TrEMBL record:
UniProt protein name: Equilibrative nucleoside transporter 6
GO molecular function: nucleoside transmembrane transporter activity
Superkingdom of the source species: Eukaryota
Membrane topology: Multi-pass membrane protein
Membrane-spanning intervals of the chain: 56-75, 95-113, 125-146, 152-172, 192-213, 225-246, 300-318, 330-348
Similarity field: Belongs to the SLC29A/ENT transporter (TC 2.A.57) family.
Cell compartment(s), UniProt: Membrane
InterPro entries tied to this protein: Eqnu_transpt
Keywords assigned by UniProt, alphabetized: Membrane, Transmembrane, Transmembrane helix, Transport
Length: 422
């Protein structure tokens, strides 16, 4: 595959990145001196990518973008105390989740089927833009409920927005996971950690906004409005970062160019944005089908299915409606849940605690089901402290560290997130 630059960067690092393409036997329009440099130093160039300029910035951006794919949905769940007062007869904490998941799952299934032909850039931008617009819709609906009680029409509007959040999640999360899977593994770790951080961050923000307006008239509603206004600004930040900053990072350009040279068609638009055009023949690699990948990793699929089935049975409905004696206690409980979710995401970085055995991972997943009767008795007879301890342990157990062969399944724009959703 040939890479034609509209403008050759003067930065030596970017020149070395593009020179790496010659190692695959493909032509490059750079100078002979640069080609000679690559031939003599191909191994050193590859190693330089690991610590190249832009890696830390890319990890930070990935962390923020990971926040972005769940920030609005987490925000929706954080103001559940407001919804319980606004819609006391509609069980919003349970209904909103039931609306969200089918839209997310169905959209991911469709995108997974067509993933190899999709424009990843348009898809991800569409997802983050939908998050931004839907957050504005929630803000408008919250401001329209001036009487302190919401009617059926307002609740239906909130449910529609919840469904749109599911579609946006399928677009952005699936696309980002597939895109980042073609890059450095640390980017995936940062992205997934960002997803967990969205819950912890929104919990802290919700506690702050609730405290600010606690003693004011109509304070719960004002706090919810301020909270979602922050969410809108955050989604706008994610959209701008992905559209203008992320594709221009040297290390991102390198990995996308490498993916294009190996036959990926989903990165073409991303490369075109930074002045790189991929033309000609590419080096094709054997591609495993979705069914084969799922079959080879059926134990992981079962693990993730059991994780989310049990998680959705406990959170957010059970924690918010069946355990909170008052709204502040409910928010603290959910905040602890998300804090330990974030801690659990970083556990695989500690080698002594890292689980790589498939049987051990499945065993830890099944062990979570032992906590079901514990939750029941704690909610009925225990104190809030017991519930916080159970919630923390419950979420800490759900994080496993799959071996690198599982990444093969994630190397597509939709298949990875579809697999996670399954």
């Amino acid at each position: 595959m040939h890479f034609v630059h509209d403008q050759i960067s003067t930065r030596e690092l970017e020149e070395r990145f593009m020179a790496v393409q010659c190692s695959d036997g493909h032509g490059w329009t750079g100078s002979k001196d640069e080609a000679h440099y690559q031939n003599e130093n191909s191994k050193s160039s590859s190693s330089e990518v690991e610590g190249a300029d832009g890696k830390f910035a890319a990890m930070v951006v990935c962390w923020i973008l990971g926040n972005g794919v769940l920030f609005t949905w987490s925000s929706m769940l954080r103001i559940i105390d407001y919804y319980l007062i606004l819609f006391p007869n509609y069980h919003p904490s349970r209904v909103l989740t039931l609306v969200y998941q089918p839209f997310a799952f169905g959209t991911m299934a469709i995108l997974a089927y067509h993933e190899a032909k999709l424009n990843t850039r348009k898809r991800n931008l569409s997802g983050y833009t939908l998050f931004f617009l839907s957050s504005m819709a929630v803000l408008i609906l919250c401001k329209s409920s001036t009487s302190g009680k919401g009617g059926l029409g307002t609740f239906i509007g909130i449910c529609i927005v919840s469904g749109v959040f599911g579609i946006a999640d399928a677009l952005a999360q699936g696309g980002m996971i597939g895109d980042i899977s073609l890059m450095h593994p640390d980017f995936m770790q940062s992205f997934l950690a960002g997803e967990a951080a969205s819950g912890a961050l929104t919990s802290v923000l919700r506690l702050i906004t609730k405290a600010i307006f606690e003693n004011s008239k109509d304070g719960l509603r004002k706090g919810a409005i301020m909270f979602f206004a922050i969410s809108i600004l955050f989604e706008l930040l994610c959209t701008v970062l992905y559209a203008f900053m992320f594709p221009k990072l040297p290390i991102v350009k390198y990995y996308r160019s490498k993916a294009a040279s190996e036959g990926s068609k989903t990165v073409t638009a991303d490369l075109a944005v930074v002045g790189i055009q991929a033309t000609g023949e590419s080096k094709q690699f054997e591609r495993k089908g979705m069914k084969r990948l799922l079959w080879e990793n059926k134990d992981y699929a079962l693990d993730l299915f059991l994780i989310y089935i049990l998680t959705l049975a406990i959170y957010p409905g059970f924690l918010s409606e069946d355990t909170g004696k008052h709204s502040l206690g409910m928010l603290v409980l959910i905040a602890m849940y998300n804090a330990w979710d974030l801690v659990g995401r970083y556990v695989p970085l500690i080698k002594s605690l890292k689980m790589e055995s498939r049987k051990l991972i499945t065993g830890s997943v099944c062990a979570r089901f032992v906590l079901i009767p514990a939750f029941y008795f704690a909610a009925k007879y225990g104190t809030q402290g017991w519930m916080i301890m159970l919630t923390s342990f419950f979420e800490f157990l759900c994080h496993e560290s799959p071996p690198t062969d599982l990444l093969n399944l994630l190397r597509s724009d939709a298949a990875g997130a579809f697999y996670l959703r399954v």
